[in-house]
């Protein structure tokens, strides 16, 4: 199948190979949570809610010198093309929960909040490829909304390699093509990669190009997330009358 | 980079040789730059006049105010939940004058109820479940509860309900009287200011 048109260079949805989908972020969508955010990457829509820092509910898991970070990823039944009930603890969900937890835990200053617990709940409302990245971006916005101290803004983006072209931000059709899918998560301002995952195989030099493309995508998302945070803060200042 | 502005986590807010990291700011691993850890306004506080280090402090003030947490030495308002032979349990509701987001548990031990004759204290004549007490936080205590003390004149029961259901009036530091029935009940009463 022609994922990249050889004549025009356009992809199936009309994007160029190094073009991301349209991203949109909104803060404060879940009123009861300490912090929450909605993040959209094209048709992929994800909600993240953060509860914490609060007292550890299971005293056996309490850590003396830092905060306990828990994360749960789930997909809504209506998120994919066919409405299907997903079991809560299936392997893919557990793996993505672990990946998101490790990425956010590396970024939160946990030593400032000992004996406490931070819960991150991420739910996919609409899945069209790149759900992992959208979840990490939504979790970053939600943590920033909750006022939890972080080292930097963590952003994530995926990239692949189809028809001999590195493609940025794969959607579901491109993802199901069976080509490699590289997901990168990084601390934008400090220029440090904290998450790197790939399925399928790539030769080393092509992998470097694809990873670099994903890193550029991460930086673009970080720029947008920073603007969303600044805009939200200015609105709060306005409402306060400062 | 002087003055104030809105910053996001990860942004550089100063150099460590000119500024000290305050709240919402951390020292980057390279040891030289200070970066923000919260989203908010960047503020510079002047150094305290009697310290040797004359650097100003830079802090980032966020919007989400986290609830108050009891600290040793702070005066708290608590509601008594359980009264036992040697101690009373209380739920801490306010710290100084700020209400807490989630309640904390405190214990008032027999020896911390008052300052004199501490071994002759009868807990049932000092507190009853439902009383509102003003207490001092002695220490963070153990994993279960903070240790509280009412061993001062201005600490103790602030408000209590009588058996008849009316709010009682304090008449001395050991007694409160019900306005409906006139019955006198024993409590460790706080001196009203």
UniProtKB/TrEMBL annotation, chain A:
Residue ranges annotated for the Exoribonuclease phosphorolytic domain, each copy included: 19-149, 152-217
CDD domains the UniProt entry points to: RNase_PH_RRP41
Family of the protein in this entry: Belongs to the RNase PH family.
Species lineage: Eukaryota, Viridiplantae, Streptophyta, Embryophyta, Tracheophyta
Stretch forming the signal peptide: none
Protein name as annotated: Exosome complex component RRP41 homolog
Biological source species: Phoenix dactylifera (Date palm)
InterPro entries, sorted: ExoRNase_PH_dom1, ExoRNase_PH_dom2, ExoRNase_PH_dom2_sf, PNPase/RNase_PH_dom_sf, Ribosomal_Su5_D2-typ_SF, RNase_PH
UniProt entry tagged with the keyword Cell cycle: no
UniProtKB/TrEMBL annotation, chain B:
Gene3D superfamilies: 2.40.50.100, Nucleic acid-binding proteins
Major location category of this protein: nucleus
Record InterPro entries: Csl4, EXOSC1_C, Exosome_cplx_N_dom, NA-bd_OB-fold
Residue ranges of domain Exosome complex component N-terminal in the record: 6-44
Any Pfam family the entry gives: ECR1_N
Coiled-coil boundaries: none
CDD domains: S1_CSL4
Location relative to the cell: Nucleus, Nucleolus
Record GO terms (molecular function): RNA binding
Gene Ontology CC, one term: nucleolus
Keyword flag Manganese: no
Record domain Exosome complex component CSL4 C-terminal: where: 97-140
Biological processes per GO annotation: RNA processing
SUPFAM superfamilies per the UniProt record, alphabetical: Nucleic acid-binding proteins (SSF50249)
Protein keywords: Cytoplasm, Exosome
Name this polypeptide is given: Exosome complex component CSL4
Naturally occurring in which organism (per UniProt): Phoenix dactylifera (Date palm)
């Amino acid at each position: 199948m022609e994922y990249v048109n050889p004549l025009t260079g356009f992809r199936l949805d009309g994007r160029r190979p190094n073009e991301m989908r349209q991203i949109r972020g909104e803060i404060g969508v879940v009123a009861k949570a300490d912090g929450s955010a909605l993040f959209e990457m094209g048709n992929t829509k994800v909600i993240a809610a953060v509860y914490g820092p609060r007292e550890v509910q299971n005293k056996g898991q309490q850590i003396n010198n830092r905060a306990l970070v828990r994360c749960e990823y789930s997909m809504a039944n209506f998120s994919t093309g066919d409405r299907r009930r997903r079991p809560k603890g299936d392997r893919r969900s557990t793996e993505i929960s672990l990946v998101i937890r490790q990425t956010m835990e590396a970024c939160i200053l946990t030593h400032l909040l000992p004996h406490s617990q931070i819960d991150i709940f991420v739910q996919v409302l609409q899945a069209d490829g790149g759900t992992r990245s959208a979840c990490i971006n939504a979790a970053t916005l939600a943590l920033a909304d909750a006022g939890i101290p972080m080292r930097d803004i963590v952003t994530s983006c995926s990239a692949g390699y189809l028809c001999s072209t590195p493609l940025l931000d794969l959607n579901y059709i491109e993802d199901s093509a069976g080509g490699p899918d590289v997901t990168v998560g990084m601390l934008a301002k400090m220029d440090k990669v904290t998450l790197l995952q790939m399925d399928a195989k790539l030769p080393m030099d092509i992998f470097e190009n694809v990873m670099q493309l994903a890193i550029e995508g991460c930086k673009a998302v970080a720029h947008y997330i920073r603007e969303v945070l600044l805009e939200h803060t200015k609105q709060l200042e306005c409402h306060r009358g400062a | 980079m002087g003055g104030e502005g809105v910053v996001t986590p990860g942004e550089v807010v100063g150099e460590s040789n000119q500024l000290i990291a305050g709240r919402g700011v951390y020292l980057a691993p390279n040891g030289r730059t200070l970066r923000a850890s919260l989203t908010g306004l960047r503020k510079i506080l002047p150094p305290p006049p009697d310290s040797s280090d004359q650097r100003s402090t830079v802090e980032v003030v966020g919007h989400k105010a986290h609830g108050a947490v009891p600290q040793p030495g702070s005066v708290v308002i608590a509601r008594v939940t359980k009264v036992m032979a040697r101690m009373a349990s209380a739920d801490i509701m306010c710290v100084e004058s700020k209400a807490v987001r989630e309640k904390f548990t405190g214990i008032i031990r027999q020896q911390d109820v008052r300052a004199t004759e501490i071994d002759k204290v009868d807990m049932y004549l000092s507190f009853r479940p439902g009383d509102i007490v003003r207490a001092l936080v002695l220490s963070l205590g153990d994993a279960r509860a903070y240790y509280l003390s009412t061993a001062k004149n201005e600490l103790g029961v602030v408000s209590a309900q009588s058996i008849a259901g009316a709010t009682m009036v304090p008449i001395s530091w050991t007694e409160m009287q019900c306005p409906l029935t006139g019955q006198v009940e024993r409590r460790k009463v706080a001196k009203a200011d």
